[in-house]
Amino acid sequence: MILPLADVPAPHIDYKGLSPLIALVGGTVLVLMAALLRGRFVQRSLLPLLTLGTLGAAMGLSIWVWSPGDHRPIVESALEVDALALSLSLVFYVAGIATVLLAHRSAALSDAGAGEYYTLLLSSVTGMVLLAEAANLITLFVGIELLSIPLYVLCASQVRRRASLEAGLKYLVIGSVGSATLLYGLALIYGAAGTTSFAGIDRALGDTVSLSDPLLLTGIALACAGLAFKASVAPFHQWTPDVYQGAPTPVTAFMAVATKAAAFAIFLRLFDSALLSAQFQWAPALAALATITIVVGNVGAIAQDSLKRMLAWSGVAQAGYILAGVVVGTQKGLEATVFYLLVYLLMNVAAFAVVIARERVSEWGDGMRALEGLGRAAPWLAWPMTIAMLALAGFPATAGFIGKFYLIDAAVDGDYAWLGVVIVAGSMISLVYYLRVVAVMWMGPMEVRLPSLPGRPRTAKPVGGWSPEADAWAQPEVTLVAVACAAATMFFGIWPNPLFDLVADVGTSLASLVG
Amino acid sequence: MLQSYLPALVFLVLGGAIGGAFTLLNGVLGPRRPNPVKNEPYECGLPSEVKRSFRFGISFYLIAMLFILFDIEVIFLYPIAVQLKAFGVFALVETLVFIFLLLVAFVFVWRRGALEWK
Amino acid sequence: MNVVWFLCLSAVLFCIGGAGVLIRRNPLVVLLCLELMLNAGNLALVAFSRMHGNGDGQIFALVVMVVAACEVVVGLGVIVGMYRNRIAEDVDAMSELRG
């Protein structure tokens, strides 16, 4: 059968709206080509600077494109540039910049080659932006694969460490099962609705397609399971602790915040815009998933000794909280979800930065004991970690409190009051493991050991001459990220108005939720 | 709204119950005479011991992988080639951009020495 | 031909692939099974495309083919890396990370 394609007009492309993506792709190509140049200057300084420049340029262009309340379908409505996509793009760029800084002295960088590392990071960010802007099923799938495939490689990038390769392969296999499930679900949704565009599906639902169409319902269930793999929502979360622990820590930090934000971006777009008419069908199931996720994540985190595993389980629990904002399917839910993702970026990056700083110098690696006595030894690291833990637990005067409050408010407002209660109960359980970290840092015995930095063999200094504070400043970029993110967490906890203004713009971006 | 989930619940309960019942019956009624061979994981048609000394050429895999990648990209050229007249200049420009990106990848692979047979 | 038969075949392929990923121990065979799952999705897409008489599904299927190739290449790359470090004969033996 020959499809009727005769005389197709050239699609309308809005290059202004597309400019952040063009900048990202251009930067990726530039970094890849620059990686071919030899020389210490290129490998150590030029490549990270180019990567940071690309991310900075994309961020600038995203802010330039920003216009509140504007839905801008570009490239024949394959992509949609609106406040939701742009605000979450900011999360990806900031996470990317933080990862470049955190990875500056990482062993993965020399193992895999700096050029490859940064190229993969940039392609992953490109995939995330594409995913956040996706307005039809095809761009959705391309985006999710463009973000995942580089991440599989990044996880395995410490090629001389067994655990890193193992994490890479595990993530690849499980991630691909998730992708295949998602794809099958998307195929069934396409089969039911007869179109791939989100707007078209929204129109077809309840009009030409019955809401109890088994094809549609199976498709939604499979797509939901596939996305749950990516967002590490229970019971599809089992890979999370293993992969988070095995991957190089800067990559873990990037996965924890950026992948999660990207997965929720598409949760919001798919469920709260394309499938909103079928809300009565999917909302109870998603609410059940959110409950299971909150319980499983919080209980799993309690017994962990490795900080990376603990943060992985805590990430699972947090995914449950965020899912509550999607379930309600209201404008407030959308705002709360985006607000929480923004805040989650700050608190999680601060925590991972401290883990990286300690992991490189402590003989305990990422174990809980690596933090012992940190409060007295290196307050520049201990304070950011304390703030991050309190914020993740949802203490007042931190941004985490406001984020959680916003989510609970949205849940109650959307007739899911019991989900709000579950969030509160989950937060209470989470105090056990978050406060344990704080206690270890501030109440443990002070330890003075001769640590060593990777790549620079330490000459044995007399203990009296070694100051832990100097050690914290031996990797200034990591400390800088930790302090900056923790400061921002506190700042937005006390004065959240800038974020409120931002998410108010986001709230109007999904036409299906407005009015 | 929750009524629509009733069939799914019935399905889950029935599935779990039947599966569980058979496992339980098997465990209670069946004879149990374990020996080391029986306890090994079994894969139909495969030796249960995976060979440890498996030799392969790494350059062969590398070339094969690169071949798959560059080969499969050609897929995007077919639809455009068939309908180029209908699409016009725009499609041609887009195709050139696409080929340029492929060239960048090719240059990278080539300069990195991945195409040399070691 | 009725589209239902294509769907049945694709569902069977999807299940075979899923079962293979779960029970096979050789990482290469696991990758093969992943391909099977993705291609089951492809078959469904093409069948629906024919049913609806629009090209969306066919374009989608083309994209999926490329993505599947990328995934398998990355998988092979990781497996080659593991063979070089002599650790990847059996996915059951990968238990460095647990707890």
Give the topology, please:
The complex is a heterotrimer of chains A (515), B (118) and C (99).
Chain A: H1 15-34, H2 40-65, E1 72-74, E2 79-81, H3 83-102, H4 107-112, H5 114-133, H6 137-155, H7 162-193, H8 198-204, H9 214-231, H10 239-246, H11 249-274, H12 279-302, H13 307-327, H14 331-361, H15 374-377, H16 379-393, H17 399-413, H18 417-443, H19 468-472, H20 476-494, H21 497-507
Antiparallel strand pairs in A: 1-2
Chain B: H1 6-29, H2 36-39, H3 58-73, H4 77-82, H5 84-87, H6 89-111
Chain C: H1 3-23, H2 27-52, H3 56-84
Description of the molecule:
The complex is a heterotrimer of chains A (515), B (118) and C (99). Chain A is mainly α. Chain A has a domain at 291-448 and 473-510. In chain A, 73% of the residues lie in helices and 1% in strands. Chain A is built from 21 helices and 2 strands. Chain A has helices at 15-34, 40-65, 83-102, 107-112, 114-133, 137-155, 162-193, 198-204, 214-231, 239-246, 249-274, 279-302, 307-327, 331-361, 374-377, 379-393, 399-413, 417-443, 468-472, 476-494, 497-507, and strands at residues 72-74, 79-81. Chain A is globular, with a radius of gyration of 22 Å. Chain A starts with 14 loop residues before the first helix and ends in an 8-residue tail after the last helix. Chain B has 2 domains: 2-39; 58-111, NADH:ubiquinone/plastoquinone oxidoreductase, chain 3 (Methane Monooxygenase Hydroxylase, Chain G, domain 1, Up-down Bundle). Helices cover 65% and strands 0% of the residues of chain B. Chain B has 6 helices and no strands. Chain B has helices spanning 6-29, 36-39, 58-73, 77-82, 84-87, 89-111. The radius of gyration of chain B is 28 Å and the shape is flat. The model of chain B has no long low-confidence stretch (mean pLDDT 82). Chain C has 99 residues and is mainly α. Chain C has a single domain, classed as Helix Hairpins (Orthogonal Bundle). The model of chain C has no long low-confidence stretch (mean pLDDT 86).
